[in-house]
Design a protein that fits this description.
Length: 499
């Protein structure tokens, strides 16, 4: 007996934790399941036939969150024979068979290298009434050759590489994602064109270290060339990328950003620490002077560039003086936002066994001071934009208070979040449309524009959003893809078909 009614397609939900890589991998998981005949469950459905957890292993609370959610699902599964639970992603790659040992009601465990095996593993587990655990040590197929159900009509992720060749002492990602594997430029550009053909306006190029792209085929300037090639794609209005590593950042990439009109003047470049001693202990092969030098060059070429970063507080051995150096770099860099983290010990990383592990209260106090400093700077930088006109790509789900305030939300070209009043255009502006509006108020994390929009442009992405379509790519290989209008999605039984 299964939870799906006789003759009805089985339904699924994918629950994603972690970084943009995981978000994009979840789009592939959805594409694979739909190709295999599954239908996405309604958002409010508490008992889909298959629940897939796509996990993160970067921080300790990721483990707690996963096992907590698995525990909540156990009684649901007990009441609904035939329901299946699958766990994939970085935590699955790390914990492997331990997941089934800790949660024996899990049906499938799959790793970061064999996403494409999920439908087969689910069917095998169902047939054998036993858990299936399959973890590969290297890529089975490059993930972008898999079918993908895109979550957005207007913005898409495109992987240019997977894996990482760096050996940062705090990071477990290289052991879970493997060594860097680069896609060929023709493959990447074909996927970008396929998305644009379906109305997507913005593409984000993804990699653990995008500006080491080309290492596999021996071209250290490959990433800058790729950015310029994206500039030749008609209909592609915005290009972003994440994340670059300061050690590989070259001047040709800055020139490509400045000289290619559709490449956004936004840069997310992890700092991690402003102390050279801590950077050395982290095995980050740059120092604060080099980092600030890159920012100076970026702003010299693009004075309007918005620069964001990642910072870790409380790394083993970090002294008060080290932490003050981080604050000094933050003040000099003038970030538009920062993702801040308290150091989290991860078994299997060199930092986990280092001397000088800091007390929680010390880390907490530094963390609060860092947040206060960052917000003081981001607020001051945002206030400079009051009175300026911004181009906003209208988004879904960016503004949690939009329904209450009557505003819509989206991202400016520099990546800043903008909440805006639709004015007389209320009801006409769709997700994926483009609006020009004037900033009237600034907060540390967003901008408001409460006057009448200056202009509104309807787009193909907006048409797709209005029609309830989302782009689907069937897996893009070398050469031009064959792609047309998105296939109709069968409605799931009992409802409609969500970083």
């Amino acid at each position: 007996m299964t939870t799906a009614a006789a003759g009805s397609p089985r339904t699924y939900q994918v629950r994603t934790y972690g970084c943009q890589m995981n978000v994009h991998d979840s789009e592939r998981i959805s594409g694979l399941l739909e190709q295999a005949g599954y239908v996405r469950a309604a958002e409010a459905d508490e008992q889909p036939d298959v629940v897939v957890f796509n996990t993160c292993a970067v921080r300790k609370n990721a483990d707690n969150r996963l096992y907590g959610n698995l525990g909540h699902l156990r009684p649901v599964k007990d009441k609904h024979p035939g329901m299946q639970i699958a766990v994939g992603g970085c935590l699955a790659q790390k914990d492997r068979g331990d997941i089934v040992r800790k949660a024996p009601w899990v049906d499938v465990v799959f790793g970061t290298h064999n996403i494409g095996s999920l439908p087969v593993l689910l069917e095998r587990a169902r047939h054998n009434t036993a858990a299936e655990v399959e973890i590969l040590e290297s890529l089975d197929v490059f993930p972008s050759t898999l079918p993908t159900r895109r979550e957005s009509t207007y913005a898409g992720w495109v992987s240019i590489s997977v894996g990482c060749n760096n050996t940062c002492t705090f990071c477990i990602v290289p052991s879970l994602r493997g060594k860097e594997k680069d896609r060929r430029p023709g493959d990447i550009l074909s996927e970008v064109r396929a998305l644009v053909d379906e109305g997507v306006l913005e593409v984000t190029l993804l990699g653990q270290n995008v500006n080491s792209y080309g290492v596999e085929f021996g071209d250290r300037y490959a990433f800058g060339k790729l950015l310029r090639a994206c500039g030749d794609i008609e209909g592609l209005e915005r290009v972003r990328f994440t994340s670059p590593h300061p050690k590989d950042f070259t001047d040709d990439v800055i020139a490509a950003m400045a000289e290619t009109p559709n490449v956004c003047h936004s840069l997310h470049m992890p700092l991690q620490s402003g102390s050279d001693d801590v950077l050395r202990a982290m095995r980050r092969s740059y120092r604060s002077e080099k980092y600030l030098g890159i920012i100076e060059k970026v702003r010299g070429a693009m004075p309007d560039a918005a620069i964001t970063t990642d910072i870790i507080v409380g790394f083993p051995g970090e002294t008060d003086a080290d932490f003050e150096k981080t604050l000094d770099v933050v003040r000099e860099a003038r970030f538009s936002s920062a993702f801040t983290f308290q150091y989290s010990k991860r078994p299997g990383t060199p930092a986990a066994t280092m001397d000088g592990q800091l007390p929680k209260q010390v880390v907490q106090e530094r963390y609060e001071r860092l947040i206060a400093t960052v917000e003081e700077i981001t607020w001051a930088e945002n206030r400079k934009l009051v009175g300026e006109t911004v181009e906003v790509l209208v988004a879904v789900g960016e503004g949690r208070k939009d329904e209450r305030t009557g505003r819509l939300s989206g991202r400016a070209r520099d990546g800043r979040l903008v909440h805006f009043d639709a004015g007389s255009l209320a009801g006409q502006i769709r997700p994926g449309d483009i609006v020009h509006t004037t900033v009237t108020y600034a907060a540390p994390h967003h901008l408001n524009a409460d006057g009448e929009p200056l202009s509104h442009r309807r787009t193909r992405a907006g048409d797709a959003a209005e029609a309830g379509r989302s782009p689907r790519t069937p897996g893009v290989l070398l050469g031009l893809p064959t792609i047309g209008a998105p296939a109709a999605v069968p409605a799931p039984t009992g409802g409609c078909a969500a970083h």
